[in-house]
Amino acid sequence: MSKLPKENKFIDLSDYGRPVAKVIANALKNTAVTPIHVTIGFIISGLLAIYCIIKCYYWLAAFFLVIKSILDAADGELARVKQKPSYTGRYLDSVADILLNALFFISIWYISNTNIWICLLAFIGLQLQGTLYNYYYVILRNKFHGDTTSRVFENKTPLALEGEKQQHVNILFGLYKLFYGAFDKTIYALDSNANKGTVLPNWLMTSVSTFGLGFQLLIIAAMLVLGLKASILPFFLVYTVMIFVFIGIRKLFYQ
Q1: Which of 18, 59, 220, 233 has CB 3.0 to 4.6 Å from 122, enough for a Cys bridge?
Q2: Any idea which fold 11-253 has?
Q3: How far apart are CA 99 and CA 43, in angstroms?
Q4: Shortest CA distance to 34 belongs to which of 81, 91, 68, 67?
């Protein structure tokens, strides 16, 4: 199932792994492998990337970061081709992402001797960037009856879907709110009327997709292999300013 109608599909710079992810999902469609298994796969890939960063194996780290991004797309694709969406998978994916992101930045801080406060602020910036992208993207998908496991406002625990346990949904949703609640509230406070505005144009969504996790990891991978490890955390800290640029554009032209 496509998330958007043809005329509203934009070039998603964070979603470069989607073609390979679709191949993986179709290959696993009639197997016992579940989307959760694929999510575990991207967690393992992320941990291998962290190990390689600490050991200064930067090409290998870049490889595992890209594989992580591909598998991160593949779990959702597999859920769609098997027609088995789940809140368990949706929240496990998000919880795993934020924990891995923290470890990515800690490992980069460790090898680059960057100030710990820059590391902390850059991580906060990274998460706010990703939250804005997801906020606008979910709003866009909901306008066109996209997948139902992603919601504009994550205010209450959803009811488990067929094939999953409510207890698992409760636990993972609680962890999601713990880790993402402050970021969600911050972005909502900055642009609370985004869901009432007009449909965002494709060029703006493409620009905001630079905040997507896949593109963020690609930037980290590229900077590692280019010998720019000391610039990674300052880059994400400074790039956070673009949040206000994108929100400003939406408020000015797409109310």
Answers
A1: 233
A2: Four Helix Bundle (Hemerythrin (Met), subunit A) (1.20.120)
A3: 10
A4: 81
